[in-house]
Amino acid sequence: MDEQALREALRSEAAEHAFDPAAVGRAIERGRAHRRRRRTALLAVAPVVALTAAGGVAAVLRSEPSDDGTEAASAPVQLLTQLTNPGLVFDARLEGALTVTDDGCVAITPIGGAIVPVAWPPEWTVQRDEDGRAVVYDPRGGALAREDGPVGVGGGMVNAAAEAAAFDPAHPCALGASRVFQVAEPLYLLGFGR
Amino acid sequence: MTMPPFEDWAHAAGPSLRRVAGLLCDHAADADDLVQETLVKVYLRWSRISRLDNPDAYVRAMLANQHVSMRRSQSRDRRGRRWPGAPAEVSHGEPAVVERSALADALAGLGARQRAVVVLRYYCDLSDEQIADALGCSQRTVRSQASRALARLRTTAAAEELG
To answer: Is CATH 1.20.1380.10 correct for B6-77+101-162?
Structure first.
């Protein structure tokens, strides 16, 4: 095969691949969530900085404009929960920060990575605490993870069309992704971020 | 020069990016994920990227680099991040047998970097200098990777069908 034949074969092969325009909206959503998380992290350290900078830095950070002009801290939060317990064992784990998207969906953002949509076990719930931060609870009411706090879960990335998928891919908290991290038991959590 | 909104640019450039991603990945879902990850990064840096002379070429290079990074990360995950006693593989729900073209089979036999070089050089028509910049390697490495990739493509049964 010469180089020209390879060029033509690649062009022919590439033409088979179609783009889903909804990917643009998802990218924007995830990008906004990333910015909001970074802003929140900056605000968390701002009081410390303010002690040495006479409050100036904190004031600047608090005045940073929102990406879309909205304040989501008090918006309702929701989980994408599994419709059934698939009873499967997965061997992947997902570690990062508990993240709330613009739509109030609870997901996980790995360190240095992009937000990952999560299908949580059945009967898990989420509520905002008195500080306005989302807290995930197990069926017994135990607080397991807090917004922007560290969290690690076991499970696996599951294609929405797969037999093992136990979630509704049309749920807004699937974030339109082709694959969702489906949390399986047993699971562990790194800690309850405070 | 007026900066176009990210959304407009992404809708225009998305099909091209998805075609490149399709050549870089073995599975459609992986290609979708690769495009998604790249678009998020572009969104976060849009104020700078949109001012470049050729943002599309820059983003294609980002895409290829992201692909190499993701493949490296996946490889690392497969080596050391299992639960004790857990089964070896996680099903991604794709059929065990997927009909692919002979070229797709041949590309699947290449390493991540070799594949990126082939796609950037022969599909995106980037120069060796541009590819070296994109992948963070020397032009000499680009040339050697391309040479090895071509040799490998020629020796695979799938490549013979093409040639």
So the answer is: no
